Amino acid sequence: MAKAVFTTKVDPTYDDLPELRYHFPKTYLRQVEAAVGDWIVYYEPRRSTGHLSSRGGRRAYFATARVRSVAPDPQLPDHYYAHIADFIEFDRPVPFASSEHYFESKLQRDDGKTNKGAFGRSVRIVPDDEFELIVQAGFVRLLGDERVPEAEWTGQLAEEPAIFERPVVERMVARPFRDRAFAVSVKKAYDNTCAVTGLKLINGGGRSEVQAAHIRPVADMGPDSIRNGVALSSTMHWMFDRGLMSLDDDFSILLAKDKVPEPVVRMINPERRLILPDRPEFRPHPQFLRYHRETVFKG
C-alpha cells in the first residue's frame, strides 16, 4: 500500500465525484492500485475546468479519503474508477507550497523552483511523512497545539511530531473528530448563517448557533463533505432530518404537504430558496439532493 495525491478540478474533466469515486485513465492505474486500502489527499489545481484558459482553482490540498477498490470503467475503454470511502474535508485548504517549502518534495527542483513535469501528473505517490504533514496542516485548527500558530505550518514542523497525541489517521477515523471537522467546514462555508431562514445567531460566548446537517445521512453512507452538508438552525435541522423539508436541484425549498406548521413556514426566507455559499464548489451536489428527496423526504 502507498499514500497518494489525487488531482481533481472544480468542474472535473473526468467523471469524478471525489466523495465517492475518482475517474482516471490507464496511465495512472499502477499508482492508484498501490493506494488501495490506504489514504490519499485531494488536490485542486489552478484550472477549474479542462479548458487551458480556465482559472479559479485554489491550488491547494482540500480533503483526504481512503481508496476502497479499483474497477474498470464499463463504458470507456482504458479508464478506471477508484471507489472512495471515509472522505473528510480539511478545515482549511493547504497551498501546495510556501515561499521555501513544498509539501511534496518531488515537486521542487534542486534550484528551488517547481518541477512542472512532476506537478503535471494527476496521481502522485507521497511518502507517509509528507502525507502526515499535509493532513496535519489541513486540520490544524482541530489538531494543532495552541502553542503553534497557524502561520508556522511549514516544513520545520517535520521536526516536531510530538505536538500530536496520536497519528493523525487514527484520529481522522473517529466519529467525534469527523463530526467536528464537518461542522467547522460547513458552518464556515455558509458564514454561520441558516441557509433556510437567513438567521445568523451568535451566542454570548461568540459561538454560532447554526448546525451542520448532512444531506445524505451518515447512517446511509453519506460523506463528510461540504457538498453533502447545509447549515441550518436547530428547528430546520430537525425538520430536514425527518423529511419534512427537502431541496430541489435548483435549491428551491420543498415542504411535506400538510405536515409543516404555519409558524415554521413563516420562518423560511421569502424567496423559498436555499441561501448558498459564495463559492460554487461548496454548494450541495445534485446527487446528494436527489438521495434526500427520494429516500428521506416525506413529500
Give a verbal description of the structure:
- By secondary structure, the protein is of the alpha+beta class.
- It is built from nine helices and ten strands.
- The protein has helices at 29-34, 116-119, 128-138, 140-143, 168-172, 175-189, 234-241, 262-265, 286-296; strands at residues 3-7, 21-25, 39-44, 60-72, 79-95, 123-126, 211-214, 229-232, 245-247, 253-255.
- Residues 145-164 have low confidence and may be disordered.
List the helices and strands and how they pair.
Blueprint lengths: L2 E5 L13 E5 L3 H6 L4 E6 L15 E13 L6 E17 L20 H4 L3 E4 L1 H11 L1 H4 L24 H5 L2 H15 L21 E4 L14 E4 L1 H8 L3 E3 L5 E3 L6 H4 L20 H11 L3
Index terms:
299 residues, alpha+beta, six-stranded mixed beta sheet, two-stranded antiparallel ribbon, 9 helices, 23% helix, globular
Percentage beta strand: 15-25%
Class by SSE composition: alpha+beta
Global Rg: 20 Å
Give the helices and strands as they follow along the chain: EEHEEEHEHHHHEEHEEHH
Q: What oligomeric state is this?
A: single chain
The total beta strand count reads 10
Largest sheet, if any?
6 strands, mixed
Strand order in the largest sheet: 2-5-4-3-1-6
Q: Can you tell me the residue ranges where pLDDT is under 50 for at least 5 consecutive residues?
A: 145-164
Q: State the separation between the terminal residues, measured CA to CA.
A: 46 Å
Kindly state the percentage of residues in helix: 10-25%
Net shape: globular
Mean pLDDT: 87
| Tally of individual helices | 9
Summarize the structure.
This protein has 299 residues and is of the alpha+beta class. It has 9 helices and 10 strands. The strands form 3 sheets. A 6-stranded mixed beta sheet has the order 2-5-4-3-1-6. Strands 7-8 form a two-stranded antiparallel sheet.
